Amino acid sequence: MSQRGAEAGAEQAAASARRRVEAVWRIESARIVATLTRVTGDFGLAEDLAQEALLDALAQWPRDGVPANPGAWLTAVAKRRAIDLWRRRERLDARLAAIAHDLEEGQRRDPEAAPWDPDEIQDDVLRLVFIACHPVLSREAQVALTLRVVGGLTSEEIGRAFMIPTATVQQRIVRAKRTLAAAHVPVESPPREEHRERLASVLGVVYLIFNEGYAATSGPDWMRPELALEAVRLARVLASLVPGESEVHGLLALLELQSSRFAARVTREGEPVLLGDQDRRRWDRGAIARGRAALARADALGRGRGAFALQAGIAECHAVAASTASTDWEQIVVLYEALGRIAPSPVVELNRAVAVSMATGPASALRIVEELERDGSLAGTAMLPSVRGELLAQLGRREEAVDALAEAARRVGNERERDVLLGKVRALEEGAR
Predict the structure, then answer these.
(1) In the prediction, which pLDDT does 101 show?
(2) In this prediction, what percent of the chain has a pLDDT beyond 70?
(3) At how many degrees (to 10) do helices 225-241 and 195-214 cross?
(4) What value does the mean pLDDT of the chain take?
(5) Which of 17, 88, 185, 218 could form a disulfide with 62 if both were Cys (CB 3.0 to 4.6 A apart)?
(6) Residue 105, Cα to own-chain centre: how many angstroms?
(7) Is 221 in contact with 270 (CB distance < 8 Å)?
(8) For 73-90, how does the pLDDT look when each residue is reduced to its tens digit (9 = 90+)?
């Protein structure tokens, strides 16, 4: 092989290793930070150590190759850095000795073995969520911090999710860490009597994590299933931890039912497939069954459906229908109306407009969208012009539809979603010729 060929091969190997580092970090970061938080007893320190281990990986893996168990490697490196830090601080205490002993024993038994117990990891991650949702933090800080350390989202991605500047997200996270440290928040799960108090924030965070995986706000991929499935896993853990809370089952039902469509939501090339075009034979019937069972458990508690259970009811209408045409759209409209009363938001109203268009036609739905435009609460988002464009196209107002869909394409952050919108624009323009 020529020198040029060897250099090209080395560059490809290095690029492959870097991509592997990024993929591993996306999947494993929550577990790693959660494990380190339990080990060090310091939430902020845990994230710093994990980031330092990530930098080591970025430097070493392209050169030395990716280890057989990347998550174990990152955690072990972070633990060693913790030991080094404590040694420098002359705090070689029982904690240090215990961690060092654990590392040595684990590596002696199996150098490639994961340094954690999977059952314990589940508790670690959940504990991390409850710490990040501690009452001393504002709701905005709780959500931002949990998405960062548990969901593994970047500050930019969180900003897109909340439609706020990245700098604002970064400030919230920094302030949240300082607040947790100043309040001496213990690194432990809250007492059971405090679960309900923190539950609303926790459920909201899990839901947002799922949404980011279900429809990524940025980047080249339409979905990030690993992130969404992590949210499903957290919801299952929550349901087992607090089985008497109906909204936990409602959230789990919603996430199971939504995740049942994953295989049908993209083509082999990763292109988005909208609900009406999906091959329903590819929907995961097991996930649908689990979702319907969770919704039944929520109903059985007899407290009426909350916001998540109502959304799960909407997802269930889709899940049991053989086709878009045979979907019970009138029932979906009713469920959206109920959702709008207990959890009003412009997004709920926009979704209601879509359901109304299917139940009674686009004209009445367009009036709802125009009211939202006058309200201005969704100004600057891609959602509003996207739905407006669809309705205008159905009404035969082609030029206005093209303008609205093109505006939506300019605003959207996800490349795959942009391609879909631009495809609709081209189809309308070609139809006019």
Answers:
(1) 62
(2) 86
(3) 160
(4) 84
(5) 17
(6) 35
(7) yes
(8) 888 898 888 888 877 665
